[in-house]
Amino acid sequence: MNMRRDVDEITGGKRLRRMRKAEWSRRLVRENLLSASDLIWPVFLMEGDDSAEDIAAMPGVRRLTVDRAVEATRRAAALGIPAIATFPNIPMERRDRTGSHSLDADNLINRATRAIKSAVPEIGIITDAALDPFTDHGHDGVLREGVIVNDESVALITEAAVGQARAGADIIAPSDMMDGRVGAIRDALDEAGYADVAIMSYATKFASAYYGPYREAIGTAGVLQGDKKTYYIDPANTEEALRETEADIAEGADMVMVKPGLPYLDICWRVRETFQVPTFAYQVSGEYAMIEAAAANGWIDGERVMMESLLAFKRAGCDGILTYYALRAAEALQNRGAGGS
Predict the structure, then answer these.
(1) 302-338: per-residue pLDDT in tens?
(2) pLDDT digits (tens, 9 = 90+) for 73-88
(3) 244 a known binding residue?
(4) pTM (2 decimals)?
(5) In this predicted model, what pLDDT tens digit does every residue of 158-181 receive, in sequence order?
(6) Which residue from 340, 329, 337 is spatially nearest to 38, judged by alpha carbons?
(7) What is the mean pLDDT of residues 268-290?
(8) Which candidate, 61, 5, 282, 156, places its Cα nearest to that of 164?
């Protein structure tokens, strides 16, 4: 019996392993590539000078004072990362029911934007106009008698967005999921003379259990009253996510985001294929924490899983990824380019 012939008969002469036999041939036919240009680095901010704080639920991630954030951003730019996204931990004494401190021209977000833009002008700065870091109840909008009121929230978020643009933000990324906020922000930015400031909409943000470590990072974990299911999308829904995305694009979003990331790769794919607009995913804190915990216990190869997870977003059609791994991944990619394995 000619076993080789039998296999050729089974496969019709197609031997797909031929192009897997060597590193050079695998690289030659690789369909998706990850680069530092695909990465956006979320940076947590805190008040003070020349200080950093570890975040227990996110090993390796730290809150940074503005001066430390400037230095860290220099490093990110040197690694080829095109943009950062800033998230503040606001002291409780500056939080209230409406998140009014978000409108302060000298709040932590705006001070950081000015400082980073002055020191590292080549990197893009993405800011979030949602109110949750500024409210004493932890919600993304104004809470009235147990209800998140949409229109009043939109008015405050819009004013905060203009203030962030005035401070130098390049992209406003509203994560609040209020109805109409993208159109309201676009109109307000244009009227204020910031027509070149882009909007990255959190178009499909799900009511997910993966956000826990992030809420610790910005100090809302212990203050959140209730949950966010009345304005975030039900994890069971795909068509609703597409309707949300369609609405935000119609209102003027330049880019759209899916959040969380890995549990919603199907949504990433559907959004990209349906709308053909720049599509991003946020590899959220819970995803990061799970990988780090498993790696710390020796259950997985953390470095390989990190890179594989990021590549999955590219395979799903994403143009870029917000990830706490941005610096580590960029360094790994740089080492590979320099001849590393």
Answers:
(1) 999 999 999 999 999 999 999 999 999 999 999 887 5
(2) 999 999 999 999 999 9
(3) yes
(4) 0.94
(5) 999 999 999 999 999 999 999 999
(6) 329
(7) 97
(8) 156
Structure tokens at 23: 């590193």
Q: Where are the beta strands (DSSP E) in 189-314?
A: 198-205, 255-259, 279-283
By CB atoms closer than 10 A (0-12, 13-18, 19+), residue 321 is buried
Q: Is 228 a catalytic residue?
A: no
Give me the numbers of helices (H) and strands (E) for the chain, helices first please.
12, 12
Q: Are strands 147-149 and 142-144 parallel, antiparallel or unpaired?
A: antiparallel
Within 10 A of 103 (CB to CB), how many other CB atoms are there? 16
Beta strand 39-45 pairing with 62-64: parallel
89-124 pLDDT tens trace: 999 999 999 999 999 999 999 999 999 999 999 999
Enumerate domains of the chain plus CATH numbers: 34-337 (3.20.20.70)
Distance CA(80)–CA(75), nearest Å, equals 9
β partners of residue 205: 259
End-to-end CA distance of the chain: give it in Å, rounded: 42
Note if 117 is an active site residue.
Answer: no
The catalytic position among 117, 205, 228, 314 is: 205
CB atoms within 10 A of CB 270: 21
